[in-house]
């Protein structure tokens, strides 16, 4: 089987492209997917978006958002 990247997928790396082809070949058609079931399992396993409050951390202690704020903070002579 020859894998040919289309113009829209040309920016994908070879490994990512191969994984995308594997998933698209081995997955069921999109009209047969029960996305609500996958989403519910994903949330139950503890995956939360960066803007959601984690059950283990305070909203002010979120790691992703705190790193973002740190990277955007201006450094001055005074501090």
Features:
2 domains, 3 helices, flat, single chain, 79 residues, mainly alpha
Strand and helix order: HHH
Major β-sheet profile: none
Which consecutive residue ranges, at least 5 long each, have pLDDT under 50? none
Cα-to-Cα separation, first versus last residue: 59 Å
Q: Whole-number radius of gyration? A: 20 Å
Which structural class should the secondary elements be placed in?
mainly alpha
Structural overview:
With 79 residues, the chain is mainly α. Helices cover 42% and strands 0% of the residues. The chain has helices spanning 14-26, 35-44, 63-72. The longest helix has 13 residues, at 14-26. The radius of gyration is 20 Å and the shape is flat.
Question: Strands, helices and their partners?
Answer:
Blueprint: H1 14-26, H2 35-44, H3 63-72
Question: Could you write a compact summary of the structure shown?
Answer:
By secondary structure, the protein is an all-alpha fold. The protein folds into 2 domains: 1-29; 34-79, no CATH class.
